[in-house]
Write a structure and sequence with these properties.
Order of helices and strands: HHEEEEEEEEHEHEEHEEHHEEE
Number of strands: 16
Strand order of the largest sheet: 13-12-11-14-16-15
Radius of gyration: 33 Å
Number of helices: 7
Largest sheet: 6 strands, mixed
Structural class: alpha+beta
Shape: elongated
Helix content: 25-40%
Length: 355
């Protein structure tokens, strides 16, 4: 419809010019008429040349951005030819891969001759995750606004959008000490929290629970499993990434970022577990420094939340029998009390649980 009106207007201009030329016998109107008749050829040829030489670059911030902050997506259109264009329509597909939400934006940009046209498009992400912007094609329009050419240009850029953390230094430290104490107590009662590092001969005073019975029978002497204690120096943290229509997973991420960062700031190491929708299993990551905390957060944001209840607690306890006390970060389900819980927004909690 828009093309029809552009053609109509152009024809009307030609007709009016012919009338004025006939009435005033004007040589200038004659020259103008020739230019009007030749201009469509110039316009179409220019569109063809630009189509063959046109290129596009797409850039997003290299550094992670906090959600709610404004960051710029840079779109650069390169036209090396001598022909300008009335408009280029760039289709931007925006996606948060963690929440699996997407949207489409259109940019209308006039193209200059022998120049790069740069547009910085402001974006604000309300939720944490991996922000991805894609282009699939660009529609070029000639100077008359009559002819269009579609160019398939596949470009992509991404940026991590991180949660907003709060300071839970005191509360997180108390939960950590309490959780490690309970785990150590369980170990002393006979629950094994350690990993086997080797086997040696029995020394008087070794615990019976560490005897390697099968090997002792074969060797006809007592053999003992040497162990490296895990639970006495760190706490297991379980992150639940279930999501609902209220986007509760974003609130859980905020709380997880706050609590884990508070632990790192106090030099309290931990191993964090979460169900990876990409891997289809529980994933784990040891965090003992700020760099490892950053790497773990990136790993989670590049993954996906899920909308089906997967009972992450049950999966964790099945795989870590006797793990004792661990810190669960997810939606409240009635476990815990005010002394063993940190409450976030939208029903998110960090609470000590036990297998």
């Amino acid at each position: 419809m828009k093309q029809f009106w552009n053609i109509t207007r152009y024809i009307l201009i030609i007709v009016l010019n012919i009338i004025m030329m006939w009435l005033f016998q004007s040589y200038l109107n004659f020259l103008f008429l020739i230019a009007l008749l030749l201009f469509p050829i110039y316009s179409v040829y220019g569109l063809h040349c630009v189509k063959n030489a046109f290129s596009l670059e797409l850039q997003a911030p290299l550094e992670s951005m906090e959600k709610g902050s404004v960051f710029l997506v840079r779109v650069k259109l390169h036209n090396p030819t001598a022909f300008p264009l009335l408009n280029a329509t760039v289709k931007l597909e925006l996606e948060n891969t963690f929440h699996r939400e997407d949207g489409v934006h259109f940019l209308n940009i006039p193209i200059r001759a022998h120049a790069d046209t740069v547009v910085e498009y402001p974006i604000v992400m309300d939720y944490s995750g991996c922000f991805v912007v894609n282009t699939q094609y660009v529609e070029l329009v000639d100077l008359l606004g009559i002819f269009e050419k579609k160019i398939e240009i596949t470009k992509s850029a991404s940026c991590l959008v991180t949660p907003i953390g709060e300071d839970y230094t005191q509360e997180a430290g108390q939960l950590y000490v309490q959780g490690v104490s309970e785990a150590t107590e369980s170990r002393n009662k006979g629950v094994d929290f350690s990993e086997i590092s080797g086997v040696r001969e029995y020394i008087p005073g070794d615990k019976l629970q560490n005897i390697h019975w099968k090997l002792s029978v074969k060797k006809d002497e007592w053999m003992v499993k040497e162990r490296v204690s895990m639970s006495a120096v760190q706490l297991h943290v379980l992150l639940e990434l279930y999501n609902d229509e209220q986007m509760c997973a974003d609130a859980v991420l905020d709380l997880a970022q706050s609590v884990t960062k508070s632990l790192v700031s106090q030099n309290l190491p931990f191993t964090i577990f979460y169900y990876s929708a990409r891997l289809g299993e529980l994933a784990s990551y040891y965090v003992g420094s700020e760099q490892e905390h950053k790497e773990w957060l990136e790993m989670v944001l590049y993954d996906r939340c899920y909308k089906d209840t997967l009972h992450a607690k049950h999966m964790f306890c099945q795989q870590h029998v006797g793990a004792g006390s661990y810190l669960y970060i997810g939606l409240a389900d009635g476990d815990g009390n005010s002394e063993t819980m940190i409450t976030g927004r939208q029903g998110s909690v960090a609470v000590l649980c036990a297998c």
